[in-house]
């Protein structure tokens, strides 16, 4: 089972518009961060895409990804879903819509914002057949579990994917660790975790909270994501424990 990190940055990316690198060294390629999204792939080559980031087209091109077998959404914030139209080309050679999954609230908001994607329009076919994540347990060769995480005043869905005897958890955009999260993520092989910055933030995990979640869940390996311009790659690598990887665009890891 493989993790591919398409994007590792916060909602504005790194650098921010205006060539603002903050504390990140512009000469370190792994500091150039597009908006967050991942792919998990099993031994049979089946792929699940989590979130359709604003930078999705360039991410798929950069990593040679021409098809996925299903799409999951954590929530409807722009950096996590506004690249949805880039899935159109994956519908061209399919006889049916691409399977999509989201929570009730996220699904309703996506349908309102992108009605043509889920209903078809002006003779164009439906691109994605959207289902509630609570209605299924197996998708494209993966079993999965999910949990709603506090994300400031709203929630974000965290996912645990399992295949080939391994598990990968994707927990981005959360501001509090709950007992339900601990139960869902316990003992995962890889935890990809929200880590906006070192200072506390009202809607995101900071470095201490990210490491606390990994420690409490006793995961084998941890990957930091959703990092802003204050999180220099090399400096973080020198600071985090040995079983923690500072994520970057294009990172591949086998569970």
From TrEMBL:
Ranges for domain Metallo-beta-lactamase: 47-227
Taxon lineage: Bacteria, Pseudomonadati, Pseudomonadota, Alphaproteobacteria, Sphingomonadales
Species name: Qipengyuania qiaonensis
Protein name: MBL fold metallo-hydrolase
InterPro entries, per database record: Metallo-B-lactamas, RibonucZ/Hydroxyglut_hydro
């Amino acid at each position: 089972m493989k993790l591919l990190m398409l994007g590792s940055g916060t909602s504005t990316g790194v650098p921010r518009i205006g060539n603002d690198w903050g504390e990140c060294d512009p000469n370190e390629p792994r500091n150039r961060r597009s908006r967050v999204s991942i792919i998990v792939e099993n031994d049979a080559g089946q792929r699940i895409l989590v979130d359709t980031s604003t930078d999705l087209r360039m991410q798929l091109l950069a990593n040679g990804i021409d098809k996925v077998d299903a799409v999951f959404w954590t929530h409807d914030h722009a950096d996590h879903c506004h690249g949805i139209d880039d899935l159109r080309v994956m519908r061209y050679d399919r006889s049916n819509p691409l399977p999509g999954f989201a929570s009730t609230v996220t699904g309703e908001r996506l349908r309102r914002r992108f009605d043509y994607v889920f209903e078809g329009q002006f003779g164009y076919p439906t691109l994605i057949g959207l289902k509630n994540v609570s209605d299924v347990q197996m998708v494209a060769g993966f079993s999965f579990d999910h949990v709603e995480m506090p994300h400031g005043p709203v929630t974000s869905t965290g996912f645990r994917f399992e295949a080939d005897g391994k598990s990968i958890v994707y927990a981005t955009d959360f501001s509090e660790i709950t007992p339900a999260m601990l139960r869902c993520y316990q003992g995962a092989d890889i935890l990809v975790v929200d880590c906006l910055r070192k200072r506390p933030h009202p809607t995101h995990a900071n470095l201490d909270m990210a490491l606390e979640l990994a420690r409490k869940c006793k995961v084998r390996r941890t990957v930091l994501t959703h990092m802003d311009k204050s999180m220099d790659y090399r400096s973080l690598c020198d600071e985090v424990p040995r079983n923690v990887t500072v994520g970057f665009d294009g990172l591949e890891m086998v569970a």
